[in-house]
Amino acid sequence: MNARLPFQDFQFALARHLRQPRRVALPVGVSVRRAAVYHELVRNNLESFLLGCFPVSHALLGARRWTRLVDAFFREARCHTPYFREIPREFLHWLLETEALPVAVPPWSRELAHYEWAELAVDVMETAPPKHAAAGDLMASQPVLAPALMNLTYAWPVHRIGRDWRPRKPQTTHLLVFRDADETVQFIELNPVSARLMALLKAESLTGRAACLRVAGELGSLDPNALIKHGTQFLNQLRAAGAILGSAT
Predict the structure, then answer these.
(1) Which of 54, 56, 248 is nearest to 160 (CA)?
(2) Which has more pLDDT, 222 or 196?
(3) What is the DSSP letter of 104?
(4) What integer is the mean pLDDT of 219-246?
(5) Helix (H, G, I), strand (E, B) or coil at 138
(6) What's the pLDDT score for residue 81?
(7) Helix/strand/coil for 65
(8) What per-residue confidence (pLDDT) applies to 105?
């Protein structure tokens, strides 16, 4: 393994100071004033990327709690990517993995942050449309899903949380997040049956009919013919919305 060069040692030492200026000494040769300016620039630049992704979390937590969270993330987290647009994902991972956050947050805060991040994640997914027949039979053939798509389940109704409403108790919520043909991120709330159907179509190469019959078999209490009828309507609605491109060719 190659040893670090002297200038790399200096960079690491400066970074440690910028993360914790009150606890870690400055490298030799760096003025306190310049280091303070650089600390503010780096920390505020980091926060600007987070504010763009988590506006609802920021608003509901308030300035004091939000600032303490960002400061702790800046101080403690170790990002694993050099790309600026991945900073929100790194912040989310830190939120989800840190048991003892520096401030008390509502029980739905982590899921709300994930919901806000999902919009950015789908928006920047680098994908290419797979081959498909736009007007194909979705029940007789395999439905082709939009390539930028996430099928999410939350314990809280995160899509309803805002300044005027906060949930008092959990409520399982299924959301389909996808990027349509106009490159716009869309959200559709699903019921448990349609969420399971989408999970099967995303994970396996099934025709729409086969997926509906699988769901009916799993639930037991559903009439397969009724589920096929509703499944046909549901999949065609998703095609019209842009979550399904068509059928496999």
Answers:
(1) 56
(2) 196
(3) -
(4) 94
(5) coil
(6) 79
(7) helix
(8) 97
For the record, the structure tokens of 191 come out as: 């019921």
Do strands 185-190 and 244-247 pair parallel, antiparallel, or not at all (unpaired)? unpaired
142 contacts 247 by C-beta, under 8 angstroms: yes
Cβ-defined contacts of 54-59 (< 8 Å, 24+): 54/88, 54/91, 54/113, 54/116, 54/117, 55/116, 56/112, 56/116, 56/161, 56/162, 57/109, 57/112, 57/113, 57/116, 59/163
Identify residue 181 by its one-letter amino acid code: A
Res 164: pLDDT: 94
Cα gap 27→148, rounded to integer Å: 45
pTM for the complete prediction? 0.89
Q: Report whether 159 contacts 180 (CB < 8 A).
A: no
* Contact status, residue 189 vs residue 175, Cβ threshold 8 Å: yes
Residue 73 CB burial class (10 angstroms; 0-12, 13-18, ≥19)? buried
What DSSP state is assigned to residue 165? B
Kindly give the residue spans of alpha helices, DSSP state H, lying in the chain.
Answer: 6-19, 32-53, 55-76, 87-97, 109-124, 192-203, 208-219, 224-241
In this structure, are residues 178 and 125 in contact, taking their beta carbons and an 8 Å threshold? no
